[in-house]
Amino acid sequence: MNSKHCNFKLSSFIFHLSTFLLLSCANRGVGPQGGPRDSIPPTVLKEKPLNGTLHFNSKKIEIYFDEYIQLTNVAANVVISPPQLHAPEIRALGKKILITLADTLIPNTTYTIDFGSAIVDNNEQIPLHGYAYAFATGDHIDTLGIYGQVIHAATLNPVTDLTVGVYDVLQDSVFEKQPFLRIAKTDSLGYFGIRNLRPGNYRVFALNDNSRDYHYQIGEALAFTQQAYQPFIREELQPDSTFAYYYEPSDIVLMYFSEERKPQYFTRATHSEPHLLTLTFANCQDSLPHIQALNSPSGGPSGDTSGDTIDWTKYLLLQHNKGLDTLVYWITDSIAMRDTLRFVLTYQKTDSAYNIFWQSDTIRAVYSTPRLNPRTKAKLDEKKRNQTIGIKTNAKTNFELYDTIRITTDVPLLTFNQENIHLSYKIDTIIKQVPCHLEHNDPIAHRASMQFNLIATLEPAHNYALKIDSGAMTDIYGHSNNIFTTNLKIKRTEDYASLKVLIPAHCQTTGALRIQVLNKKDEPIRELPIVNGQALFQYLPPGECYLRLYEDLNGDGKWTTGDWQLKRQPEPIYYFPAKLNLRANWDFEEIFDYKATEQLNSKPYGILKTQKPTQ
Question: What is the pTM of this model?
Answer without folding.
Answer: 0.81
